């Protein structure tokens, strides 16, 4: 199975320093259409949880952080293309949250905004959107104390399952993709069924369910020629 993670989706990146992790709405549409034209099947996180294991031609699309621009620009494309995706959100930043982890040097009104809980509840009605956890506050899990890690894992699950109901699925993406043996152990003891990294590999049955690799999607990947080259370079098409 191929798993991809996106971040920002908008016509013009708001901040030049993260242009590389922004894809345009047209770029996202091209990304989806190219994968399907190559015979890949984009499936939902619920399909993944119900399956015996990752299928070789299956693809999973994920969005980290839950930026407000996902609500404005990504979801309309996903719904138009009838394409399922999972958005990993920060359970401790559901009200007027901003990107405090990368942009603390900026005034709060200039930081990237996160989706609010009311916006998430609107998307909870979409047949194509599910939500997973990105922890509470976007802190690197391997650097937390045992108690802090327990709170990030348990409290995020409790908050999101309570607030989002069936739209929340028991999966988590590690902030910055960082994990360790201790984090995998903590996730194994939790209600979460899967946890995602940013290791660049195809997801195969030998991977731990708490260390699932993902390829990051970048600005240039919205160009079909560049994306095709990336798939070939990583031996995805013919591997």
Question: What do these coordinates show?
Answer:
With 239 residues, this protein is α/β, with parallel strands linked by helices. The protein has seven helices and ten strands. The chain has helices spanning 25-37, 45-50, 68-80, 117-123, 146-164, 181-188, 224-233; strands at 2-6, 8-9, 22-23, 41-42, 58-65, 85-89, 129-133, 168-173, 194-196, 215-216. Strands 1, 4, 5, 6, 7, 8, 9 and 10 form an eight-stranded parallel sheet that branches. β8 (168-173), α6 (181-188) and β9 form a beta-alpha-beta unit. α1 (25-37) packs parallel to α3. The chain is globular. The N and C termini lie close together (12 Å). The mean pLDDT is 94.
Distance between the termini: 12 Å
Low-confidence stretches: none
Which range best describes the helical content: under 10%, 10-25%, 25-40%, 40-55%, 55-70% or over 70%? 25-40%
Rg, alpha carbons: 17 Å
- Average predicted local confidence, pLDDT: 94
Tertiary shape: globular
Number of helices: 7
Query: Could you state the order of secondary-structure elements as H and E?
Result: EEEHEHEHEHEHEHEEH
Structural class: alpha/beta
Largest sheet: 8 strands, parallel
Number of strands: 10
Strand content: 15-25%
Give a quick set of tags describing it.
239 residues; alpha/beta; two-stranded parallel ribbon; 10 strands
Q: What is this structure's SSE topology?
A:
Blueprint: E1 2-6, E2 8-9, E3 22-23, H1 25-37, E4 41-42, H2 45-50, E5 58-65, H3 68-80, E6 85-89, H4 117-123, E7 129-133, H5 146-164, E8 168-173, H6 181-188, E9 194-196, E10 215-216, H7 224-233
Parallel strand pairs: 1-5, 1-10, 2-3, 4-5, 5-6, 6-7, 7-8, 8-9
């Amino acid at each position: 199975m191929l798993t991809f993670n996106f971040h920002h989706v908008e016509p013009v990146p708001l901040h030049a320093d993260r242009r590389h992790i922004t894809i345009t709405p047209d770029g996202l549409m091209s990304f989806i259409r190219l994968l399907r034209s190559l015979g890949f099947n984009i499936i939902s996180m619920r399909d993944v949880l119900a399956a015996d294991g990752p299928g070789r031609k299956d693809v999973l699309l994920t969005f980290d952080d839950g930026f407000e621009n996902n609500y404005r620009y990504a979801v309309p494309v996903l719904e138009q293309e009838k394409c399922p995706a999972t958005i990993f959100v920060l359970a401790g930043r559901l009200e007027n949250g901003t990107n405090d982890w990368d942009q603390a040097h900026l005034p709060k009104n200039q930081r990237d905004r996160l989706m609010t809980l009311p916006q998430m509840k609107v998307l909870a009605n979409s047949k194509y959107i599910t939500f997973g956890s990105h922890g509470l506050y976007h802190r690197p899990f391997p650097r937390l104390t045992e108690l802090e890690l327990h709170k990030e894992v348990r409290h995020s699950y409790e908050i999101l399952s309570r607030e989002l109901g069936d739209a929340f699925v028991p999966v988590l993406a590690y902030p910055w993709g960082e994990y360790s043996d201790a984090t995998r152990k903590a996730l194994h003891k939790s209600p979460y069924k899967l946890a995602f990294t940013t290791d660049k590999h195809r997801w195969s049955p030998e991977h731990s369910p708490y260390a699932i690799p993902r390829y990051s999607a970048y600005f240039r990947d919205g160009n079909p020629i560049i994306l095709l080259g990336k798939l070939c370079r990583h031996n995805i098409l013919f591997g």
